[in-house]
């Protein structure tokens, strides 16, 4: 099997499992998905599939299809177990995705849809950052790590050096890697703060006993 096909199937396998930890943690109440973010990601997942398919993607399309299905499952759970709502920003992002679809359908230029998908996806990711920064344990880091790996494999599955085909999977790998880093960084910072607090509390207790 050629390298592109192997990478595409590997990306599909990773995509098939990357939302499983997120679904598990959401059902347990450990992860609290942002409804607006996952709504936008669900819409954009469908747009990405259509734009990449129209642009001639083959093996790199497989993980996108599976990823879109996974985001839809999380969205269904987020309606009942998530946080946030359909704000004006969320509505604007959905509108941007709609513009991308309209541009693809009427102008027959899939790169327009892909560009709109990347822009709206990025803003959706930024939308969940305040919650993630305040409470990094409300997100499942494993899901974003696996998504980044899937994006990297999708890049490898693109048979030709086409910017149009590489743009979305490359972006997908980078943004998910950054989200995973933010979660890890904030968790370390909170652990350090907690350890410092315990140290000061212990010192104050010893001082009280001595006095």
Question: Please, what is the average pLDDT?
Answer: 81
Task: Quickly count the domains.
Answer: 1
N-to-C series of helices and strands? HHHHHHHH
Which range does the strand content fall in?
Answer: under 5%
Largest sheet: none
Quickly give the structural class. Answer: mainly alpha
Low-confidence stretches: none
**Rough shape?**
globular
End-to-end Cα distance, whole Å, is 76 Å
- Helix segment tally: 8
Number of strands: 0
Supply database-style keywords:
211 residues, mainly alpha, 8 helices, 83% helix, 0% strand
Summed up, what is this model?
The chain is an all-alpha fold and about 210 residues long. The chain is built from eight helices and no strands.
Explain this structure.
There is one protein chain. The chain is mostly helical and 211 residues long. The chain has one domain. It is globular. The protein has helices at residues 3-18, 20-28, 35-54, 61-81, 88-107, 110-134, 141-157, 163-210. Helix 2 packs parallel to helix 4, helix 3 (35-54) packs antiparallel against helix 6 (110-134) and helix 7 (141-157) runs antiparallel to helix 8 (163-210). The longest helix is centred in the C-terminal third of the chain and has 48 residues, at 163-210. The mean pLDDT is 81.
